[in-house]
Specification:
Distance between the termini: 73 Å
Bound molecules: adenosine-5'-[phenylalaninyl-phosphate]
Shape: elongated
Helix content: 25-40%
Largest sheet: 7 strands, mixed
Number of strands: 10
Structural class: alpha+beta
């Protein structure tokens, strides 16, 4: 029986199994303990004889248990060391990580360049009053220029609590209907009403057009608007800033080109392109021009209605608006603007920032 016990102990596979054996043999109801209890029924000689044997057994069992416990602990430690050791020669695991969207990357780059030139960055509402998006920009309802930007109109039927807010939070519902802004130019008016010149701002933002989409037209895209107003601001400053943008984007050899065109809110109006030295080609990016005097008048009239002093007499300014996706498309050779917002990872991953 002792041999079976010793055998079992030396083969115990775990500390738990060992503990169970200890209880089985040496525990309060263990076999050995039971045997000890029967000693009282024996004659003194037998008792002495049997007692010695039992004590011997007990000692041997305890020793065996201790020895096995030490071995098992040693093995466990060994195993842990092996499992937890780091093999620095293994190739690393690649953890998938997120990244900025291509549009954010380009916008970030544009804003960095303009901040360097001293521009502040401001943003405006995407649901806009017809007044700021069109009328104040010299595009009255009957003007054919409105057809240049097909519009999503927003109706708030039976929603009397809906208000569009003006630059100072005032309600401007009376000034016209609501639209999803078709360009960021409305912010020119809002900002001028709220501030006095001189200033330099850029306005990044989402714009919307009721457009049949194709490879170069989306119904939602981004623009970056720029506006500089002050005394003695001229077209030369506009050219300088756009040229600086070209250099910021395309390096020392980057340059800008201007061609006359028409926008109701600038006079004269231009469209501008940038020279991309690497590919040796011009990239058409957007429109620009000197702020039309009509805008200054609208802004001052609005300020006057709010009890503010007129602030735009004797100043001039220029503005530009460019397509952000357009720049990305030309620069990276993206074949279709619709890739931008289909959220296909195989596309997005290529431009992780
Ligand atoms: C405007 O939106 C004027 N507000 C720009 C402006 C601002 C002129 C200030 C003068 C002064 P236009 O409609 O051309 O202009 O749009 C400007 C740019 O937005 C275009 O050059 C093009 O890059 C981009 N764009 C226009 N429509 C789309 C479209 N459907 N999808 C993607 N990009 C577009």
């Amino acid at each position: 029986e002792l041999n079976t016990a010793l055998e079992e102990i030396s083969h115990a596979e775990s500390l738990e199994a060992l503990q169970a054996l200890k209880v089985r043999y040496l525990g309060r109801n263990g076999l050995l303990t039971q045997a000890m209890k029967t000693l009282g029924q024996l004659s003194p000689e037998e008792r002495r004889e049997r007692g010695r044997t039992l004590n011997e057994w007990k000692e041997r069992l305890e020793k065996a248990l201790e020895a096995r416990e030490a071995t098992l602990k040693e093995q466990a430690l060994q195993r842990r060391l092996e499992e937890e050791s780091v093999d620095v020669t293994l190739p690393g695991l690649a953890f998938p990580s997120g990244g900025l969207h291509l549009t954010s990357l380009i916008l970030g780059e544009l804003l960095r360049i303009f901040r360097r030139m001293g521009f502040s960055v401001v943003e405006g509402p995407e649901v806009e009053s017809e007044f700021f998006n069109f009328d104040a920009l010299n595009m009255p309802e009957w003007h054919p220029a409105r057809d240049m930007q097909d519009t999503f109109w927003v109706e708030f039927r039976g929603e009397p609590s809906f208000t569009i807010q003006g630059p100072f939070g005032e309600r401007v519902n009376e000034l016209g209907g609501a639209v999803l802004r078709t360009h960021t130019s409305g912010m020119q008016i809002r900002y001028m009403i709220q501030h006095t010149p001189p200033f330099r701002i850029v306005v990044p933002g989402r714009v919307f057009r009721y457009e049949e989409t194709d490879a170069s037209h989306e119904a939602m895209f981004h623009q970056l608007e720029g506006l500089v107003v002050g005394e003695g601001i001229t077209m030369a400053d506009l050219k300088g800033a756009i040229a600086e943008l070209a250099r910021g984007l395309f390096g020392k050899e980057g340059k800008a080109r201007f061609q006359p065109t028409f926008f109701p809110f600038v006079e004269p109006g231009v469209q501008f392109a940038m020279w991309w030295p690497e590919r040796e080609k011009w990239l058409e990016l957007g429109g620009a021009g000197m702020v039309h005097p009509y805008l200054f008048k609208v802004v001052d009239d609005y300020r006057e209605r709010l009890g503010l002093p007129r602030a735009y007499q004797g100043v001039t300014g220029w503005a530009f608006g460019m397509g952000v996706e357009r720049l990305a498309i030309l620069r990276y050779g993206i074949p279709d603007i619709r890739y931008f917002y289909q959220n296909r990872l195989s596309f997005l991953k290529q431009f992780k920032g």
